[in-house]
Amino acid sequence: MSQSFDIAVIGATGTVGETIVQILEERDFPVGELHLLASAESAGSSVAYRGKNVRVREVDAFDFGKVNIAFFAAGPDVTRNHARHATAAGCAVIDLSGGLPVEQAPNLVPEVNGDLLSRLGKPLQVACPSSGATALALALAPLRQLLDIRRVNVTACMAVSSQGREGVTELARQTAELLNVRPLEPRVFDRQMAFNVLAQVGVPDAQGHVPLEKRLVDELRELLALPLIKIGVSCIQVPVFFGDSLSVSVEAASPFDLAAVGDALNAAEGIELVDAGDYPTPVGDAVGQDAVYVGRLRGGIDDACELNFWVTSDNVRKGAALNAVQVAELLIKELT
Question: Which domains are delineated in the chain?
Answer without folding.
Answer: 5-128+320-335 (3.40.50.720), 133-315 (3.30.360.10)
